[in-house]
Amino acid sequence: MMFLTMFQFTYHGSAGVVAIAAIVFLILFVGMLGLAGYACFYRVHFGNYVSKPDRINFEQRRVMKVIPWYSFSRASSKEAAEDKVFAGSFPFWQVSPVDEEAAKPVTEDEDYIKKFGWLAARFRRTRWWFFAVWLVYEFIRACFYAGASGHPITQVFGLLVVEIVAFVAIIVMRPFEGQRLNAIVVYLLGFSKVATVALSAAFDVRFNLPRILTTVLGIVIIVIQGVLTIVLLIAIVAGAVTSWMSVMRNRSREEFRPKKWANLRDRYFKHLNQAATDLPPPPPPVVVPEEPKDPYFSVNSVRRMAKIEDEDRDDDEETPFDEKPERGLEDDSTTPAGAAY
């Protein structure tokens, strides 16, 4: 609606049409931003939250110990260390509860859910405020789509910068509680918007690309949108299955149909309970091997077998080497017939 109203301003028209567009623009602009601001204020004010000054640091690091890279970190975070190298910082703020232990998460605050659950229901416990960020993001996109509609270069490259910044920021925040929403909205849809805008920039007549190349770029855009559509259809089917499980959550395993999905439903509910806490999964338990209660073997008797050295030693004691006659050296006259050695 913001896009349509602002496009009407750039498109011009009769005074009555522009007046209706201006009224709709003011209602949506003031109404939506006012609701989002009041939802954040209500949570901070009545949820015993306090705003503190903070800073965002640019941390220098290396990817694979070779490629230089930069990452963002809060000065108040537990991961911040004094031995890290920072390229710079800018002021920011931090909203945190007065009492960490007594503070209720959004998922357990029934009063807030009744009033603003339609805004914060799909987001993580620590990203409940993301609806305000998303509203500003959509408003900026509407400004470029509608306000810069007569200037294609400004429109395309401005949108490209906005989409890249939003893509990186949303990946870092990963705001949605469900894995399907994170996969579709954050990764697939974000990549689709960046790739589509970047490839569409080449269609401007100023670049004078050949027709074959523009046809290939168009096919690539169609393939990207087609993959996104297929994944979206799969997610719709999966959402229908999980919704059926949620509707039948109060039925026992014997009453649930189809019975083949009973184990799948139990795993799904376990995953939901873990995702609602917005905490990393617990580490796997350390399995300590038990010591054997009894020995692995027992020795009942010992028997020593004769070795080759023992046989040689016995022969040496009975007949010394120098006393043994050598075979073939005796005279036949002194040797009895048929004697054997």
From TrEMBL:
Keywords: Membrane, Transmembrane, Transmembrane helix. The keyword Glycoprotein does not apply. Pfam families: TRP (PF06011). Coiled coil: none annotated. The chain crosses the membrane at residues 20-42, 128-147, 153-172, 184-203, 215-247. Residues 275-341 are annotated as: Disordered. Residues 321-330 have a biased composition (Basic and acidic residues). Residues 309-320 have a biased composition (Acidic residues). Residues 1-264 form the TRP C-terminal domain. It comes from the Eukaryota. The keyword Chaperone does not apply. InterPro entries: TRP_C, TRP_Flc/Pkd2-like. PANTHER family: INTEGRAL MEMBRANE PROTEIN (AFU_ORTHOLOGUE AFUA_7G01610), TRP-LIKE ION CHANNEL. This is TRP C-terminal domain-containing protein. The lineage of its organism: Eukaryota, Fungi, Dikarya, Ascomycota, Pezizomycotina.
